[in-house]
Input
Amino acid sequence: MSRRKQVYEGKAKVLYEGPEPGTLVQYFKDDATAFNNQKKGVITGKGVINNRISEYIMTLLGDIGVPTHFLRRLNMREQLIKEVEIVPIEVVVRNVAAGSLSTRLGIAEGTNLPRSIIEFFYKSDELNDPMVSEEHITAFGWATAQEIDDIIALTLRINDFLTGLFLGIGIRLIDFKVEFGRLYQNDDMRIVLADEISPDNCRLWDIRTNEKLDKDRFRRDMGGAAEAYHEVARRLGILPEGGPRDMKGPEVMQ
Output
């Protein structure tokens, strides 16, 4: 890794120059952070699991026509991705009240929402990722009105797909965060799904017990974070009890 040029390092991943023009290598770390980097720790094996889960979900989304930056997994911790210009907006989809929504609005955690809610947050660690409106986004040039329309349409499609995928393995998709990028090819530009989809940026609860199977176990000092990530991967058929293997189909819960 020392021979490669590092392009960017975030809280959970490192980006390196890719082997071909227009590509990057995305490395998944075991580092865990919460509350805008105020809490730091390590979840052993998280990078390996998130690499596999994100590969699996990005591949499935690509199969149903959702454009993504994902190309292929390279090894246990790295995947090859297309280089994109990240839109500086985090998009959060909420299906059930939890986390900051419950805190901000005084809604009991676990309350079903009448419909899925989309929220936007400006990507800025210095400002603690403030919540913003579509008017803010267009006024300050972070994205155009058309790009916002494309992002919303893709986000709702992703939500529908993920809700069904997780429901089939006995998991409730409470909420999740996604990021998008501008992919430039020749004279064309299109919005594509970027970053990752994993228990790092999804709230996942067991349908029967409401047990949390995501990073909330780290945020809230509940313990068992690594086991929770492994359980999600096991149910998806990516990491069965026997250990890592090639990607298989998900295990359907009865």
Remarks:
- Residues 85-224 form a domain with the D-amino Acid Aminotransferase; Chain A, domain 1 fold (CATH 3.30.470.20).
- Residues 244-254 have pLDDT under 50 and may be disordered.
